[in-house]
Amino acid sequence: MSFQKAPVLVTGGAGFIGANFVLDWFETVGTPLVNLDKLTYAGNPLTLESLKDNPNYTFVHGDICDADLLKRLFGEHRFQAVIHFAAESHVDRSILGPKVFFDTNIGGTHQLLNAAREFYETLTGEERSAFRFHHISTDEVYGTLQPNDPAFSETTQYAPNSPYAASKAASDHLVRAWHHTYGLPTTITNCSNNYGPYHFPEKLIPLILLNAMAGKPLPVYGDGLQVRDWLFVKDHCSAIRAVLERGKPGETYNVGGCNQRANIDVVKTICALLDELLPDSQNVPHSKLITHVQDRPGHDRRYAIDATKIETELGWKPAESFESGLRKTVEWYLANQDWVHGVTSGDYRKWIEQNYSAREVQK
């Protein structure tokens, strides 16, 4: 599809991946965009401060569960596409309090699909043929892999193992159903673990990075041998644009970075980078701060993405290796301490204490 004057709607565009997508959109496409975000703890409008005077950027503070708001926005802006990031996304939080994950990830997606369907049914001609609803999901819906299992493909059976993964699996099924039942032109991407600038520091890479810089313990679950496929966030943004432009309605595309790493190796790599970039730090070697803590319940052992379909059908491949992407990430955090201080609020510190203080240190 070619993006013309009609805006796209981005939900959750103040969160980590969503905000990176919005910034990337204005670097690469530049056409009008409306960002709808509830601004929960992980939504940070400061990330998008550079766009405040851009006439093509509109921010709306609101909830995807608000059906009246969605109907009004579709009527006012007549969106040509919806890019749906908005979701509760942290597994540990879903274990401690799953209800909000079901309310947002399932209920909110349902409301958004209904609003998009009602709007789509009013379209004719080129507007109708160009409209897309794109849903961003996760590889966690597929469950876990053993060390020698093949990577997840688009035909892998769903087997979610956490409340978060279950809520995302349910939202995927809703998107699929709205396409097959109502004809809404939807696409889905299931991505591997993202990392990069503006990442909220409850997730592994920014948590380890910021703790190491502060000389705090680096909490590693269990033996640290859980394996993830790491995807640099700007590569994810380019994949989403490829699906919007060339993807086929009704299809799912897996997006991976082709970078499988054990968590403990990720932590050690961050420590080595900090040793290099901060040689005068009193915390060198930063690896001495590594602390193994009690594993979380239902912790999936390995994720891996087979991205063959998006590579062969849409011509997309990641531009960054894990080493190049991680170096860019560490350098960004070192250069943007004001953003870090702004996002590490009292609520965040309470969460870190709640999640990690009760976990036994593993000897």
Please specify the SSE layout and strand pairing.
Layout: E1 8-11, H1 16-28, E2 33-37, E3 57-61, H2 67-77, E4 81-84, H3 91-96, H4 99-120, H5 125-130, E5 132-138, H6 163-182, E6 186-191, E7 193-195, H7 204-214, E8 218-221, E9 227-232, H8 233-246, E10 252-255, E11 260-262, H9 263-277, E12 290-293, H10 308-314, H11 322-335, H12 337-343, H13 346-356
Parallel strand pairs: 1-2, 1-4, 2-3, 4-5, 5-6, 6-10, 7-9, 8-12
Antiparallel strand pairs: 9-11
Helix pairs in contact: 1-8, 2-4, 4-6, 7-9, 9-11
Return Rg in Å: 20 Å
* General form: globular
Give the assembly state of these chains: single chain
Distance between the termini: 55 Å
Helix and strand run: EHEEHEHHHEHEEHEEHEEHEHHHH
**Helical content class:** 40-55%
The secondary structure category is alpha/beta
Low-pLDDT segments, ≥5 res: none
Q: Report the major sheet.
A: 7 strands, parallel
Sequence of strands across the biggest β-sheet:
3-2-1-4-5-6-10
Helices, by number, come to 13
Average residue-wise pLDDT: 92
Strands, count: 12
Describe it for me?
It is a single chain. This protein has 363 residues and is an alpha/beta fold. The chain contains 13 helices and 12 strands. A 7-stranded parallel β-sheet has the order 3-2-1-4-5-6-10, with helices on both faces. A 3-stranded mixed β-sheet has the order 7-9-11. Helix 2 (67-77) packs parallel to helix 4 and helix 4 (99-120) runs parallel beside helix 6. The N and C termini lie far apart (55 Å).
